[in-house]
Amino acid sequence: MDAMHRLILWDIDGTLLHTGSPGRQALELGAARVAALAAVPSVRMSGKTDPQIVNDILVAAGLSGDDAGDLIPAILAESEVLLESWSNRMAVEGGVHPGVRDLLTELDAVTGVRQTLVTGNIYPNALCKVRAFGLDGFFDVEVGAYGTDHHERDRLVPICLDRVRERRGETYAANEVWVIGDTANDLSCARAAGVRCLLVGTGGGGFAAVDALGADAAVHDLVATGSLLELLLH
């Protein structure tokens, strides 16, 4: 029997957990402070990278593309400070989605399975979020890929695959890699890299938003630990 060899790439927001208001507010208030915005336009954040979200806020506020681009690094740095200061708020207002902790625990116990994060969050914010809920120990965060690495989500899986090869000496066939997410953008980034995708209906759009997208699998939530392990490991 072949040894188990799987790389599980987790999205954060909507998939693993929800942060309540701090996740959104950190980016919005960061933009307001750095760009001196009197009002912050509300933009859709689901499925985007943090740099994309901040750019969308600035453009919606009337800044030109070049002016917006110049401000993005400072805004993201401010969001990092804000989110870290609100870690306790996140733990109170947010929560881990159903079944997540059990599935992470079971996968963590399987020799030959490596779990990491592939997320639009910049690295510090990604780590802050999973730490706030005590999930950070499940992930090899050093080989993950983040909004820090590229503003286009479709570029993130190859970055992760390069890192796991360079830092852990591991290579994975396409059918040994799963992206787990909650939006069409998670599926897009998986397809761009030729790997498999499991979509879960715990994001803002619910199951209806992911059911017909054509992922390798789609589920309402991650409660059915046994059947999910069968899917991901076989």
Overview of this structure, please?
The protein is of the alpha/beta class. It folds into 2 domains: 6-19 and 95-233, HAD superfamily/HAD-like (Rossmann fold, 3-Layer(aba) Sandwich); 22-91. It has helices at residues 22-35, 50-60, 65-85, 87-93, 100-108, 123-132, 156-168, 184-193, 225-233; strands spanning 6-10, 17-18, 95-96, 113-117, 177-181, 196-200, 217-219. The strands form 2 sheets. The protein has a 5-stranded parallel β-sheet, sandwiched between helices. It has a two-stranded antiparallel ribbon with strand order 2-3. Helix 1 crosses helix 3 and helix 2 packs across helix 3. It starts with 5 loop residues before the first strand and ends with a helix. The mean pLDDT is 96.
What value does the Rg take, in angstroms? 17 Å
Regarding CATH, which class of the largest domain? Alpha Beta
Helix percentage range = 40-55%
End-to-end CA span: 12 Å
